[in-house]
Design brief:
Helices cover 41% and strands 15% of the residues. The longest helix has 27 residues. The chain has 15 helices and 14 strands. The protein has two domains: 156 residues, Alpha-Beta Complex (Aspartate Aminotransferase, domain 1), CATH 3.90.1150.10; 256 residues, 3-Layer(aba) Sandwich (Aspartate Aminotransferase, domain 2). A hairpin with a 2-residue loop joins β4 and β5. Strands 2-9-8-7-6-3-4-5 form an eight-stranded mixed sheet, sandwiched between helices. With 439 residues, it is an alpha/beta fold. α4 runs parallel beside α11. It binds pyridoxal-5'-phosphate. Pyridoxal-5'-phosphate binds next to α6. The site of pyridoxal-5'-phosphate has 13 residues, from α6.
Length: 439
């Protein structure tokens, strides 16, 4: 018999699949350990800009909620699993007032709202619990955080090529010819993509639902399509066509729209929500919320309700003005510094990521480019000995794409850092490219 201290825990399959920390997890914790403020640059993490957060409005909303317990009852107590009735009404009014997704009042009326236990992330996770394991179809490049979670939970990812209008329907159909349709679990479509900020065109939103419906007819089971619209409140280029909500095509009840206020208000509120028909999957999501946390924090929900009613419309204009001016100046910086080395730069219309494809410089974790920017080349002249040399963190394309060019791609986030930091960042990237070319 083994002695007590030699025994191992008997772990679940999910835990066994999660033994290795993810790249992002590892990268951020390693970097945080010896981050040198003012010297090192982290444009890998997708943090939201602190200056865009409605600090005063949140304080005022908290005060208001506390002083109006006739409206916001028991705001410091447990809440119901579907979400605060006040917040759900505020989200509905926000949609109506702004004609979000060009939904008519009648179309909106056909859908119910549920508030996730902790952001959009928890609703996406709930979906993975609700659905039978199988293939999940998504765009390539893909949102690595969720796709990694899906893989750990036993789903198989089918990433489909995208272009500057988003995931390509013809490519979905081609990919479908290669798989057993009965194994398809659901579609996970990000409408403004992370990592490349590409906005999915309105025509494609409609076509993707049609394709899911065709599979449903062939297999005899309803295939859900999740549209993750996390960044739709942050379309800052005024020339972009207003996006249609795919709920317009939800005759069969298999379309789910997931949103969040993380990007336009504050991630720490942890308010994400889902609009859908009242069906089995919605019931499952609500039950998961109850099982793992009873409800989202009721006080945060009530504060957000007040924020939406009183401040949101003006605040959103301010946020997008700030991201617009940042996007324009950083785009100029990147073009000025890197045009010799770059094949394509995506992004700059919405959200806060640029996705760069280099002509021939490789960027994955083993690459010279990566070693240069993390100061791990082994050459003291480059890594710095006495003199401290700045390091730069980015997300390599290989983390979020299976396409051949992923090896030459990087995601840069301009959410958190100011344009001045990007001046330094772009110079460092240029030096890394020059270094690779000299080798
Ligand atoms: C595409 C996408 N969906 C969802 C989320 C997470 O949203 P939340 O903060 O509401 O969990 C993110 C955050 O980066 C994201 O990029």
């Amino acid at each position: 018999m083994k002695r007590m201290n030699e025994l191992n825990f008997s772990l679940s399959q999910l835990a066994k699949n999660s033994k290795e920390p993810s790249f992002i997890n590892k990268m951020t914790s390693e970097f945080a350990l010896d981050f040198r403020e003012g010297l090192d640059i982290n444009i890998g993490v997708g943090y939201v800009n602190d200056h865009t957060m409605p600090v005063k409005e949140i304080a005022a909303s908290y005060q208001y909620v506390m002083e109006h317990d006739n409206i916001y009852r028991n705001a410091l107590n447990y809440g119901g699993a579907e979400g605060s009735p006040n917040l759900r009404a505020s989200i509905r009014n926000y949609y109506k007032r702004n004609q979000i997704g060009n939904l008519t009042p009648e179309e909106l009326e056909l859908h119910k709202i549920v508030v996730g236990v902790s952001g959009a992330t928890s609703i996406l996770d709930g979906f993975a619990d609700a659905m039978e394991k199988g293939i999940v179809i998504t765009g390539d490049p893909f949102y690595y955080s969720y796709t990694e979670n899906l893989t750990k939970k036993g789903f198989e990812l089918l990433p489909v090529k995208s272009d500057t209008d988003g995931i390509i329907p013809d490519e979905i159909e081609k990919a479908l010819n290669e798989v057993d349709l009965n194994k398809i679990s659901y579609f996970y479509i990000v409408t403004i993509n992370n990592p490349d900020s590409i906005i999915l065109s309105n025509e494609r939103r409609k076509r993707i639902v049609e394709i899911a419906n065709e599979i449903s007819d062939k297999t005899g089971k309803l295939i859900p399509v999740i549209f993750d619209k996390a960044y739709e409140d942050t379309i800052h280029n005024p020339e972009v066509v207003k996006p249609d909500s795919p709920l317009k095509y939800n005759e069969r009840g298999n379309v789910f729209e997931i949103g969040t206020f993380s990007k336009v208000l504050a991630p720490a509120l942890r308010i994400g929500f889902m609009l859908s028909k009242n069906n089995q999957i919605r019931h499952q999501i609500v039950q998961r919320i109850s099982d793992i946390g009873f409800s989202n924090s009721l006080i945060n929900q009530e504060i957000t309700s007040r924020l939406l009613d009183e401040y949101m419309d003006e605040h959103k204009i301010k946020v997008n003005k700030a991201y617009r001016s940042k996007a324009l100046s950083i785009s100029t910086i990147l073009k000025d510094e890197l045009s010799d080395y770059v094949e394509e730069i995506r992004g700059g219309d919405a959200g806060f990521y640029f996705y760069i494809t280099f002509k021939d410089v490789e960027t994955d974790q083993e690459s010279d480019f990566f070693q240069f920017l993390s100061r791990k080349t082994g050459n003291p002249e480059i890594d710095g000995e006495k003199e401290k040399k700045p390091r730069l963190v980015y997300i390599p394309g290989t983390i979020c794409s299976r396409q051949a060019q992923a090896k030459r791609q990087i995601r840069l986030s301009y959410g958190f850092e100011e344009p001045e930091v990007f001046e330094r960042a772009a110079k460092l990237i240029r030096e890394a490219c020059e270094y690779c070319h000299k080798l």
